[in-house]
Amino acid sequence: MHLRHQKGEKMNEAIKATKFGADVFGAEAIKEYLPKDTAKKLQGTIERGEPLDPSIAGEVAHAMKHWAMDRGATHYTHWFLPMTGATAEKHDSFLELKNCEPIMAFSGKNLIVGEPDASSFPSGGIRSTFEARGYTAWDPTSPAFIKRHGNGATLCIPTAFCAYTGEALDKKTPLLRSMQALDKSVKRLMKLFALPEAHVGCTLGAEQEYFLISKKYWEKRPDLVMTGRTLFGAPSAKGQQLEDHYFGTIPENVLDFMNDVERALWSLGIPAKTRHNEVAPAQFELAPQFEELNLATDHNMLVMDTLRNVAEKHGLKCLLHEKPYAGVNGSGKHNNWSVNYGGRNLLDPGTNPQENAIFLTMLCAIIEAVDKHADLLRASVAGAGNDHRLGANEAPPAVISIYLGDQLAKVIDQIQKGNGGKGAGGGKKGMLRIGVDTLPPLPMDATDRNRTSPFAFTGNKFEFRAPGSSVCCAGPMTVLNTIVAEAVDRLAAELEASGTTGKAKPGEHTAAFHAALQDILRKTLAAHGRVVFNGNGYEVGWLKEAEKRGLPNSPTSLEALEAFSKKENAALFEKYGVLSARELASRHDIFLEEFVGKVRIEGTCERDLAGEMILPAVRDEYAATLDALVKAEKLGVLSGTAALKENLVELGSGLDALKAGIRNLDEALNGSACDEILAAMRTLRTTVDALEHHVPDAKWPLPKYREMLFLY
Ligand code: ADP
Ligand code: MG
């Protein structure tokens, strides 16, 4: 007993030493800085989503200011997620002059709303500059935190960002709305299972992949500086063929970097948990423990910020681009997602027939949602960067399918082929009877095949693997919540219409209810089971098979984004109160503009680098070779001239191709077709990468793959 007590204390001290949550205005700070009553009210809002009592805002602001000042903060900012996909902040100091005397002020109003003159954020036509003001509104469910920088500190208050009309100008607002939609649908369904009303929660664990590069190389690569990816670079002799990097020993300097990242994240209350080498050389992963979805989304934004900032201090650069290097793996951000009810994970198959029935219902709802709205899920991960990654043989293809694993697939198959409405007790032999039979224990999927799937069931959660490494989780998660809310809602409506619900005591269900459920799930699977694919998603055969099944395939983002302009999709978002038609249209515009903008920047950068750095180097080498050849021939030296001539031809034809490639890209840039720009970029790159082998290493103007990927 005594020993256990001591151990516990030591444990607490150890946790304190990590400073976990030290820079977060969380439960502990609230308890310390607020009177009991106010603290209780605020916790109610944070934990149960109860509306915030406006009368306590002043007190909360006061406490927050003192807490922040005790931690060295002099400024505060509303921190939000504009449509740029990054985070935004505009700092104000607490300092105010009152009767010529400086005071430190921060009011309830300062906390609750902000009016940044944020007219330059993309709004997709929702706001014109004459009505430029946007509003930021405090999101108490994501705690305020301290951002440290050099010798200063700033209090950051997570907020939603809206236009004066109330229209969402950010990524958080639709996410919160989609969580409400799912909440409502799941409550409706759970009521039919005769469960008492409880809190519906979503959870997200976002695995973050990234590359590290030595800053000295990064500085010499204008393409990385401008676009985040290498536009040129021949493959190095060694890439990832030996599979020796994945899970390999983490280099010491990288481990130092990771330690610093984790310390910073822990201070921010972000439960960074797993770190390891990834598949490509110089590629790594950080995975936090999963958290509530809205919080986890904010936290992932801070993870990306922290990775970038800490890298600087270690003489490194952190590349969050989806495909910094051609020919080796790109980086994703696997969104592990699940839904819980009263704290129980609904995607956990459970151990008894009741839990199994709920699990199978949710599973079928998700299958329906993903099949029906594969186009929206695909669009939610669209982006100029991710286009180079999806389907590039080491990331899931652009066709959205679901991986269930062999055992669960068998269960689904049984339901699908089952006897339908003949009564849950009267199924054919070997058929699963919902509400009667217990599912066999499903092993956590141990195979590697799920890695090739864009949407994989992994034991008690789904892993959406298509999102790119730089994406803000809010976009894909908003779509996922909304489409699942719709499917759950539809299943609930069908169950209600069966006339078998509402007849059981809490926690019990009737046989008639289960028979109706079995029939509804069977029909759902018959209509949507085609989206389930348990094979290898990297195989070319799958694309053909997917086409046969009628699954959409939009390999490019421009095509994929069209999903956001479809009338039926606008109706879906509007019906569930997630985005109005105007809000969705604005997003469509913003994403298109962003895509086109990025492609044009890349194209321009590639043209400029080819003309200003590569061409002069090749020309000089050509001239030097020519010079040597002329001199040798003049002196009548025969040896070596054949080789020089061969070199000259290689360099000369390369030079011609280079010039033509630059001209071609320049012409494409004069037009407006992104696919033409991208095609011209690919052609030019092929020429440049071939020339890399014909120019002396010392004269090549850009650091090479063999340096960037291995010397960090
Ligand atoms: P991997 O997929 O690489 O094997 P893990 O199985 O460790 O990785 O899990 C990946 C992520 O999934 C982690 O962030 C983990 O916290 C998260 N996760 C686990 N359970 C859930 C859940 N119920 N909801 C959301 N995320 C979860
Ligand atoms: Mg994973």
Q: Any overview of this molecule?
A:
- Strands 9, 10, 11, 12, 13, 14, 15, 16, 17 and 18 form a ten-stranded mixed sheet that branches.
- The chain is an alpha+beta fold and 712 residues long.
- β3 and β4 form a beta hairpin.
- The protein is built from 22 helices and 18 strands.
- It folds into three domains: 153 residues, Ubiquitin-like (UB roll) (Roll), CATH 3.10.20; 392 residues, Glutamine synthetase/guanido kinase, catalytic domain (Creatine Kinase, Chain A, domain 2), CATH 3.30.590.10; 113 residues, Four Helix Bundle (Hemerythrin (Met), subunit A) (Up-down Bundle), CATH 1.20.120.1560.
- The protein binds adenosine-5'-diphosphate and magnesium ion.
- Adenosine-5'-diphosphate binds next to β9, β11 and β14.
- Magnesium ion binds next to loops.
Protein structure class? alpha+beta
The figure for the number of domains is 3
Share of helix among residues? 40-55%
Give the CA-based shape: globular
Query: Mean pLDDT across all residues, rounded?
Result: 91
What does the main sheet amount to?
A: 10 strands, mixed
Give the helix tally: 22
* Low-pLDDT windows of residues: 420-427
Compute the CA-based radius of gyration.
29 Å
Under the CATH scheme, which architecture of the largest domain would be assigned?
2-Layer Sandwich
CATH homology group of the largest domain: Glutamine synthetase/guanido kinase, catalytic domain
The CATH class label of the largest domain is Alpha Beta
- Under CATH, the topology of the largest domain can be stated as Creatine Kinase, Chain A, domain 2
**Content of β-strand:** 5-15%
Please count the beta strands (DSSP E, at least 2 residues each): 18
* Bound ligands, each once: adenosine-5'-diphosphate, magnesium ion
